[in-house]
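Q: What changes when zinc ion is included in the input?
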Amino acid sequence: MLSFLANILFAVVFIWLFIDVLTSDSAKPSFINVLLMFGFLAYAYFTYRFVYKPLHSLPSTRIVKAPDFLISTNQFNAELELFRPTDYNIARITEYTSTCPICDSKVELDYGKPDRSYYMVGRCRGDPHAHVYSFDRMLMKGYFLGHGGYFDH
Ligand SMILES: [Zn+2]
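A: The predicted holo structure follows.
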């Protein structure tokens, strides 16, 4: 929620500066105004890339990491998913967690890229790149994606 308010504040400041440059009397904008306009473009790109583009993929992927403005301030991990109990899609905020059978740390859902081919995987907080699990949200099941030798004692 705080990052969402910060995004709005940055957007208002950058839009105000952009309008100020366009409406100024001088023919040549100052260096700081040009720098701020490029900052605005970078801000707009990163906001689209990391906040709104994942939301656009929600109808096809059915689950995405919930953006900060949809979750409460004391929550750091949540998913936004579509489910279909009837003929209609319903969006809901959920948090899927489990316990890692290897190290007993908490396993949270995360994007599989760049190291896994699955869209969403369960990543252990203790070792997020070695203790990785698949996740089937319809069956609420998953399996270890590493070598089976981890479970030999
Ligand atoms: Zn683990």
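Observations recorded in class: The two ends are 45 Å apart (CA to CA).
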